[in-house]
Amino acid sequence: MNAAPADQIRLLDVQALDTRLTQLAHKRKNLPEHEEIQSLEADLAQLRDLLVASRTEESDTEREQTKAESDVDQVRQRAARDQKRLDSGQVTNPKDLENLQSEIASLARRQGDLEDVVLEVMERHEAAAERASELAQRVEAVQAKSEDAVARRDAALAELDAEAGTVREERESAAGSVPADLLKLYEKIREQQGGVGAARLYQRRCEGCQLELNITELNDVRGAPEDAVLRCENCRRVLVRTPESGL
């Protein structure tokens, strides 16, 4: 295949633009914000689960406290009624009087036990409420960090996408000035060689595979017509000669 030296130089411009597009795509995929957001979202999910559990416990202990306080109130009211009967002097039968006094004493003990239960439930309720409040604050803080990371990621993506759009336009323009057969060969090699289809021969070294040409290869290059499209013997990429080739 033959192509004017200037067309081959323009092929290097196309390669440089393709390389930049590859770099931008890699950078887009590997933005540090991606991992940061993923980590924050995992933390946020865990914190939200803990918050739900704490709020459930807070709600459960609130109901338990209400029930325990109601039990105390019922015992207190019954004890008050019994005490009123006792103080009124209406109970005169010794046995009934003894039973009433025994019941008042039993109710007092029962009330004490239930009040202990109320205190214990109150402590658990307060602890659950404090835990839920703490977790809610942590969720809010992590959510803010996540939103900040998302905003930074979106800004970075927008910047990269804008640059990629500009580079694609430049690439389209540059590729349009390269002969179709040369461009087709370049595209085929680029697909086979990890995105690099053309390389400059610089100081007797192929910049595609970074290997220096031996004396036989150099003599072949020196003897080739200026418009001959050369291939590196090692990596098979299009090898473009420039004034810096060292021939």
Describe the protein's architecture and organization.
The protein is mainly α and 247 residues long. It is built from five helices and four strands. The protein has a four-stranded mixed sheet. A hairpin with a 6-residue loop joins strand 3 (230-231) and strand 4. It is rod-shaped. 17% of the residues are buried.
Report strand order across the widest sheet: 2-1-4-3
Distance between the termini: 21 Å
Rg, nearest Å? 42 Å
Q: What order do the helices and strands follow?
A: HHHHEEHEE
Number of helices in the DSSP assignment: 5
The main β sheet shows up as: 4 strands, mixed
- How many beta strands in the DSSP annotation? 4
Low-pLDDT residue intervals, each spanning 5 or more residues: none
Q: Helix/strand/pairing class, anyone? A: mainly alpha
Q: In percent, how much strand structure appears in the residues?
A: 5-15%
Average pLDDT reading: 93
What share of residues is helical?
A: over 70%
Multimer state: single chain
Shape estimate: rod-shaped
Question: Summary?
Answer:
The protein has 247 residues and is mostly helical.
What key attributes describe this structure?
mainly alpha; four-stranded mixed β-sheet; 5 helices; 4 strands
Helix-strand blueprint:
Blueprint: H1 5-29, H2 32-88, H3 94-176, H4 180-192, E1 198-202, E2 205-206, H5 215-223, E3 230-231, E4 238-241
Helix pairs in contact: 1-3, 2-3
